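hi! just following up on the protien thing from before. the input was this:
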Amino acid sequence: MLIAIDIGNTNVVVGVFEGENTDLRTKWRLQSNIHRTTDEYMVLMGDLMRFEGITADQVRGVVVSSVVTPLTRIFRKLSVTLFRKEPLIISAGIKTGMPIRTDNPREVGADRIVNAVAGYAQARGAVIVVDFGTATTFDVVNFQGCYVGGCIMPGVNVSLEALVERTDRLPLVEIDRPRKVVGRNTVNSLQSGIYYGYVSMIQGISHRIIKEEGCRFSIIATGGLGSLFHLEEGLFDEYIHDLTLQGLKILYERNRA
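and the predicted 3d structure came back as:
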């Protein structure tokens, strides 16, 4: 089995792949908390593994993508202690199979490279990957298979929470897809502004990327809220919830030798 760990600013997502199958056997979502110790995360992982009937000696490898440096250290120690495996940590210098054509390749987030690799493998050609996380990111791979950069903007939840925090009378609402753009009350107006505002932003940025790069792209969405925005017809070609975990598996296999 392969344990793939995606450490984000909000959540740590752990996926378990069995054999050469690209389908997940199971996955778990933990809170990203730099104040938790390695031992605490080990207890959580141990309990989840027992529930699924997975033992540590069944694990053949561990791969980690992280944007939270303290948690990178914690999960490296967890891997060595619990699985007796030195994890593959996605960072500069690993084999990606994809040229990174940015000003400073070392500053590109590990999660973004993982998404780009997985998106290109899925699309089999030029691709824009839109990831709905703490930040909403666009990652662009051109028709030559080169990662050429992208865009980073505040995530949907972050934008809404910042607005509510900075105002006195606006409530925190559930992010949903309203039937109409024009809201008849405060809740509907907020939902419409957030949802259709992001739809228009995604459409606009995607159009600009396509025009700037001068080629046809597949557009793939991932991340929790991607499933909601995929309801908007024509916004994305495909929604793949576990794209990052799939990318981690691809990169692990490329670096096994």
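The longest helix spans residues 186-213.
DSSP finds seven helices and ten strands in the chain.
cheers
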